[in-house]
Each structure stands twice: as structure tokens, then as C-alpha cells.
Amino acid sequence: MAAGSSTGTGEVPTRSQTEANRKLKYISLAVLVVQNASLILSIRYVRTLPGDRFFTTSAVVMAEVLKVTTCLLIILLQKRFNVKETAWFLLDSVVLQYKDTLKLAVPSLIYTLQNNLQYVAISNLPAATFQVTYQLKILTTALFSVLMLRKTLSRVQWVSLLLLFAGVAIVQVQQEGNKEAAVADGSSQNYTVGLVAVVVSCLSSGFAGVYFERILKGSSASVWMRNVQLGVFGTALGLLGMWWNDGAAVAQRGFLFGYTGMVWCVILNQAFGGLLVAVVVKYADNILKGFATSFSIIVSTVMSIYLFSFHVDLLFTAGAGLVIGAVYMYSLPKAPGAALPHGAASSSPAPQTLRTEESGQLEAFLPKSVLVNDTD
């Protein structure tokens, strides 16, 4: 994980290689922070603008379509633009191995629900409050990992989860007395609806991530193929949700009603942001991901002050500070032998075991596009 360690071939990296690795880490940090903060801020911005409101259910579907299309093009590129070979590969991976594909139906359903709930939450909560509260997904992912996968957490991680919960609770108390300044169009916002949406989203995120890991252990599919399989189900379920919730309105006004340049930016960020993170995340270690999440909370809070007249007081600062510290603490690597399973006697676990445990701990930080094990 460290940049200066010896390579898998036993060679020691040169100074130029070490410097390149350091630059890649900084670039990955910037990408993680920008994608994390910009998506939330941009959704909040387009949902509080005066004028016609786009259908959030159609935005979820459009993001899935763009993501699937992009992954298909990448697979085609990997097959050197051999259309026949790509078609057979997709037929085998998606249709002939249908049992493997069907495994993704449940997490895809949950992720589609989660994406719609995020729109509901951000439409009703200040961006900074949502960003802080949404870190509860770390808590839910950890708890589901312990319950479903029998994973162990270090004492530091348990303490960080308690601090995380306390920080989020303090922010909610603060929000009872301080509401975001009214937006120009005077649209009504329901704080309770937003809070329920973000809590349910955190629960679904935690369960889906752990369930995803459990059913796909040992899978050999690439990250791009997994996103195609997820996207196929996501598109179908998204269309079903759009028909159920906005069917009549979409039929009357059109699928792209209310789409502006800024709305397209939000959709593109949703579609490609996660895929971009999936690429750069290889160059970011555990601590860097935790730091990126913490820094994105600060960025969202500062930008909310200027964009949405968000009021920051001592109580919010204390709560957000606890959350930021908890996120960083949770991302710290375990001390050797700090949380061995019951009956374990080995003092030097295999590198592959360490890698598996570490990847499981990181799921809480990553968007769904990253929650797929690439085999390279």
C-alpha cells in the first residue's frame, strides 16, 4: 500500500516511480473529493432553482443508460472493436450465465431505490447536512459486515462508529433550530422527509454493499461487465419506478421535461463519476479515501454557505468535526492482530487475506460503480 515498498517482482521502485505514485495519489484524492462534493452540491442546486422541475426518476434512468453504454464501449475497446467477439462475450456473461446475472437483481433494486432516495433527501435537506448525515452509511455497512459476513472491527473502528453516530445526532439537533434560508422560488421543503430518505438510503447502501460482496466472492467478471449487469437491471427497475411515480406526467410532458444544461451535468456526474472513481481508486490507499470523504464534507459545507446561504454555528461545527474525525479514524489500517477471528493463532495472515479485509472496510466510502471486484 505504501508507495515506497518493493514491487511484486522484488525490485525497489526508482525515485521517479515513487514520485509518479505520489502524484497519482494526489490526483486520485482530488478526483474523489470533487466527485463526492460536486454531485451533492449540483443536485441541491438544480432542485432549488425556480422554474420547471425535471423528473428525478427519469434522471436516474438516464444515468443508468449512459453508464451501461459507456461500459459497453469500454468492453468493445478491450475486444479491439471486434463486434462479433464482443456480442458473444456479452451473450455468455449476461444470458448464458444467467444465474450469475440474476444475483445482481437484488443489489440493483436497492441501488435504484437509493439513487431515487438521494434526490428526495437532497431536495429537502441542506447539502452540508446531507453530506454529514449520509456518512451513516459507514455505520450501516460496518454493522451489516459484522452481522452478515462475520467480519471483525478493531477497537478504534468501534469508537469511530460511536463518534460518527454522535456527530450526526448533534447535527440533527442543530438543524431543528436552524433552517436553510428560503430559496428564491419559495418551494416548500420537508426536513423530516429528507431525513427519513437519507436514513433509509444509508441502510440500503450498507445492506446492498455487504450483500454484493457476499454473493460475488470469487467472481471473475470485470468491473465493466458487473456495471453492465447492474445497469441492465437498474434501467429496467428505474423505468418501472418512473412509470409508477411519474408515469402520467412523463407521458404528458415528455421524458426530458425540465432538462437544462445543469441537469445534464448532474446526470453525467452520476453516470461517469462513479466509473471515474473506479479507475483512480486503484491509486488511493485506505487512509486517502477516508481523508477524501472528510475533505468533501468541508468543501460541501463551505460551498453551501456561498451558494445556499447555509448557516454554520458552533453546534454544526462540533457535529461535523466529530463525523470528519470518525471517518478518518475508521479508515486507519488495523494494527497487526488487533481483531483476529475467534480461535485464530496465526500472527502473519496471508497478503490476500489482508487485501480482502481492507477492501471490505472500504465499501462504505465508495459509489456503487466501485463496489465490484476487478480481477486485474
Summarize the entry for a quick read.
This protein has 376 residues and is mainly α. 71% of the residues lie in helices and 0% in strands. The protein has 14 helices and no strands.
How would you portray this structure in words?
This protein has helices at 15-47, 56-78, 83-96, 98-102, 105-124, 127-133, 136-149, 155-177, 191-215, 223-253, 261-280, 286-308, 314-331, 351-362. It is mainly alpha-helical and 376 residues long. Helix 5 (105-124) packs antiparallel against helix 9 (191-215) and helix 8 packs antiparallel against helix 13 (314-331). The radius of gyration is 21 Å and the shape is globular.
Give keywords.
376 residues; mainly alpha; 14 helices; disordered N terminus; disordered C terminus
Please give the share of residues in helix. Answer: over 70%
**Overall pLDDT score:** 80
Record field, number of beta strands: 0
* Annotation field: number of helices: 14
The oligomeric state is: single chain
Q: Topology, please?
A:
Layout: H1 15-47, H2 56-78, H3 83-96, H4 98-102, H5 105-124, H6 127-133, H7 136-149, H8 155-177, H9 191-215, H10 223-253, H11 261-280, H12 286-308, H13 314-331, H14 351-362
